[in-house]
């Protein structure tokens, strides 16, 4: 009796074979590169580094192979790590449509006795981490806040959050891309290695990306509006906002005096 094997079953195992075999080969290479009794310390270090790099290379290849096409473009273009919004905590609220004058009133006496953990949580809950790198984590759709924060005082930081379109670095500016057939796409434009332009239409979701052949692009116009939403603080309550500002101003340092009780 003949047994038919589904094509999908076969295809999946071929893919797994191509992913696993090189990784196993690298692991074997790692063991084979253990130092001999006559090897010098320098030779031993070089062999170990080469073997580790081989393993790391295959692990990275396996990871990229599991990504969707837009996610692969994100990784290749340097847009940054993909952080899923559904994995982040929710704002505690209740929210309020905060204005700059209200924030200035909240912070007119400075910040003291704030809660570090709540500030870090709010950084995630407000989706700041999706677009901004801070210390060793976060995306890079927007500017890296690690060193940038040091250029602002508290009032300037609050104004930047409430009015993000006031100053926009060119590399983080939205653009309007018009095609020869009359379509218009708005988002951050990234050059792709395959000769296309990739337009990320949602800074919080790298999967929302459009690839356009360069030959189809008729015009690209930089826009004056920021990728960052102006109502970022709207879901947050008073304590969340103050702790978030303290977290940023402290450069993420829990030992900063701003958190002393």
Describe the structure.
This protein is α+β, with helices and mostly antiparallel strands and 261 residues long. It folds into 3 domains: 10-29 and 48-66; 85-166 and 230-259, Cytochrome Bc1 Complex, Chain D, domain 2 (Orthogonal Bundle), CATH 1.10.760; 170-226, SH3 type barrels (Roll), CATH 2.30.30. The protein has 9 helices and 5 strands; from the N terminus they run ααααααααβββββα. The protein has a 5-stranded antiparallel sheet with strand order 4-3-2-1-5, with helices on one face. It starts with 6 loop residues before the first helix and ends in a 12-residue tail after the last helix. Mean pLDDT is 76; it is low at 1-18, 28-37 and 51-79.
Put simply, the count of helices is: 9
Question: Low-confidence spans: pLDDT under 50, at least 5 residues?
Answer: 1-18, 28-37, 51-79
CATH topology of the largest domain: Cytochrome Bc1 Complex, Chain D, domain 2
The class by helix and strand makeup works out as: alpha+beta
The radius of gyration is: 24 Å
Instruction: Based on the coordinates given, report the CATH architecture of the largest domain.
Output: Orthogonal Bundle
Distance between the termini: 79 Å
Mean pLDDT: 76
Which strand order do you get reading across the main beta sheet?
Answer: 4-3-2-1-5
By DSSP, the count of extended strands is: 5
Q: Shape from CA axes?
A: elongated
Could you give a short account of the major beta sheet? 5 strands, antiparallel
Helix content: 40-55%
Instruction: Bin the strand percentage.
Output: 5-15%
The ordered H/E elements are HHHHHHHHEEEEEH
Q: Give the domain tally.
A: 3
The CATH C-level name of the largest domain is: Mainly Alpha
